[in-house]
Amino acid sequence: MKRLLVTGAKGMLGGAVVAAAERDPDAPGILACGRDRLDLRYPDGVREVLREERPDVVVNCAGWTAVDDAETREIDALAVNGHGVRALAQGCAEIGARLLHISTDYVFDGTARAPYAEDAPTRPANAYGRGKLAGERAVLDLLPEAGYVVRTAWLYGAGGRNFVQTMIGLEGSRDTVSVVDDQRGQPTWTGDLAERLLRLARAEAPPGVYHGTSGGQTTWYELAREIFTLLGADPGRVRPVSSAAFPSPTARPAFSVLGHDRWAVAGMPPIRHWRDALHDAWPSLAGGRA
What we know:
Blueprint: E1 3-7, H1 12-23, E2 29-33, H2 43-53, E3 57-60, H3 67-72, H4 74-95, E4 98-104, H5 127-142, E5 147-152, E6 155-156, H6 163-171, E7 177-180, E8 184-185, E9 188-189, H7 190-202, E10 208-211, E11 218-219, H8 220-230, E12 238-241, H9 274-286
Parallel strand pairs: 1-2, 1-3, 3-4, 4-5, 5-10, 6-9, 7-12
Antiparallel strand pairs: 8-11
Helix pairs in contact: 1-7, 2-4, 4-5, 6-8
């Protein structure tokens, strides 16, 4: 691999991928594309950028991420997460590039009681999930030998809005914080996922679906208590509530735990436990408050 193109490079995950590549002395040349350079809403422009730049590997971190807005603007969300990704896959097929595409746990309905395997049947329960599933199918259909779908969930990191940053802010402004305790998933640090994406980009791994989430599982409430503990605050200030306490237009999966068996075929271990990652990420998240 000589040239890597990262879409969504100004976002939380895209920025982490670019930063990880810049720190890696063995990384290839990097083209960091924000929406001003490559906008998935404009398929012709997407393919034109790929023909001009001719990367060996594309890591697609771009996408429509406003989950609730997708319920009332599903056509717009699908234009980005479905049709735009199809154009990206078509462009990669034209130039012979591999594509690593970021997807989501929302392609599942969240009714399982055991971790979802990579080949588990998909059944999105909301508009965001339907659009992301359309993008997955485009990648796998158009790039059967060069398409990689990496599903992630509960993502957090520096430089973006996320649950960890929200809890850090609320700890300093409220006596108590109510957090849902009936949704279960895997908090995943962008630093860990970025490193894994770069390894996958360099590896001779089989194409297909991989699950890029941390090991272990927890609830939002339990995660908030861990954050308060790291802040030196009393975790008893976090109060558990049900999802009904926060009405949403989006049906969110109650169970977003993903299995990681397929990393073995790529010769890589699964991503480490979420708590270990959070502790290592903490200096970059807390801004000196810890």
